[in-house]
Every structure is written in C-alpha cells, then in structure tokens.
Amino acid sequence: MKLRQVALLAASAPILLFSCVSPKKLKEEQAKYNTLNDSYTKLQGDLKNCEDQKAEEARRKAALQNDIDNLNKQVAFLKENNTQALKQLQDLSVISSSQAESIKKSLDNIGAKDAYIQTLQQAMARKDSLNMRLVMNLKGAIGNLDDKDINIKVDKGVVYIDISDKLLFKSGSYEVTDKAKEVLGKVAAVLKNQPDIEFMVEGHTDNVPFASRGLLLDNWDLSVKRSTSVIRILQKQYGLDPAKMAAAGRSEYVPVTSNDTPDGKAANRRTRIVILPQLDQFFKLLEKQ
Prior knowledge:
- This protein is α+β, with helices and mostly antiparallel strands.
- The chain folds into two domains: about 1-90; about 130-289, CATH 3.30.1330.60.
- The protein is about 65% helix and about 10% strand.
- It has seven helices and five strands.
- It has helices at about 1-90, 95-140, 165-170, 180-190, 220-235, 260-270, 280-289; strands at about 150-155, 160-165, 200-205, 245-250, 270-275.
- The protein has a five-stranded mixed beta sheet with strand order 1-2-5-3-4.
- Helix 2 (about 95-140) packs antiparallel against helix 4 (about 180-190) and helix 2 (about 95-140) crosses helix 7.
- The longest helix is centred in the N-terminal third of the chain and has 90 residues, at about 1-90.
- The radius of gyration is 47 Å and the shape is flat.
- The mean pLDDT is about 75.
C-alpha cells in the first residue's frame, strides 16, 4: 500500500511542480519570445532596406557609367571635329583673289550696316530731343498749374498731356469749363507752332457706372463725348487743323491707378492728348543725315 502511494506521489510531482510555476514563468517566457520576435521582424526589415539600397546603388552606378560613356563619345567627337577644323584652316591659309574680294565685300557690307545703325541712333536721339523740346514748350506755356490737374510727360518716345476731369468738366457732364478752355488755348498755341504734329484726344472715366441720360448710355458714350468736346474747342476756337486730330473714348478700361479709393477714381477721370509718332517725319530725319 505504501509503495503504491509513493509511486503515485512520484508520478504527480512534475504536474504539481509545473502547475506551481507556469503562470509567472509563462508570462516571462512569452515576453522574451515577443521581444525576440520583434527583433527578428526589425532585422528582416533592415535586411530588406539594405537589399533595396544595394539595388538602387547598382542602378545609379549603371546610370553614371552610361553618362561617362556618353561623355567619352562626345569628347572623341569634338576631338575629331577639332582636327578637321584645323585642317580646313590650313587649307584656307592660301585663298584665291575672288575669295579675297568676296571677303572684302562682306566687310564693306558690315561697315555700311554699322553706319546705318549709327545714323538711326542719331535720328532717334534727335527725335527724342524734339519731343523734350515740345514738352518744355508745353510746360512753359501752361505755367505753374497744379500737377494734379495737368501732367505732361514723355513715355517710350511718345508725348502725353493728361488733363484732370476736375479741371475740364463738371461731374457727369461733357461741357468744357471756362477755366479748362484757357488751358486748352495754351496747349493749342504750342501745337499750332508744330503744323506737322498729329494727335489724338482720349476720354477716360472711372469705373462708376454712368446713369443713362439722353443720348449717353454709359461710360463709353461719356468718354467719347468728352473727347469730341475738347476737339471741337481746339478746332473752332483755336484754329487747329481737324485733319491732324482724332477723337477716342477709352471708358473705364485704361486706368492709371486703382479705382478702390476716391483719389484713384479722380486720377482715372482724365482726358489725354497723345502726340502721335509720325514715321514719315522720322524717316525724313534719316534722309537729312
């Protein structure tokens, strides 16, 4: 009976021992396993990255080698061309009389073109000088009028005379004020002394919609009527040749500044006299050189 009990105790000992340590030990071993498994996964990822980088480096190396091969081919091609050029220069060291005459004519043509360019530049400088003289005459005739009301300038070889809406017209009207007629008379006196000059009178408005009134429907009509009102005064009161004048209305679409402020709107409401460039006069300047 005792032997049977001893045998039973010996058989159950491992089971009892395992059941005593398994929960804690199992967790520790499981944690170790998880750590090792994470390390293994990371190493696998690192290995893949290394393999990808190795493949990329191989591709770059192949591309660089291809570039080197192409450059070597270009160097060889240039060397060959250089050799041919040197040979051609040696062959040209002795030229025939006809070839020498051809070269002389080419040089003469270059000299003639250079002289023409210099003449053209001189004519342009003279034209600019005439424009500046016209501007100075206009400013001298008008006197010390506020620059906000009238502005005379040269831009890209063209003379502009900008007269403010405030000086020329009453609000929403195209009838020229008496004060403006005096200014237009001074401008006309200068232009009359230049009978070959042609010019265009442009009417400009701001972007405030014009209330339809009689024959005037919008800012287009208003800008044109203001232009023709100025031209009629220059023609009928001051005797300028109507064949030398043109009328244009630009409405609100060519502003000099933003219409976001009252001052901006005031600057955009203007009448501009543009002295038209005369190409025939310009070529006459060339002929006189």
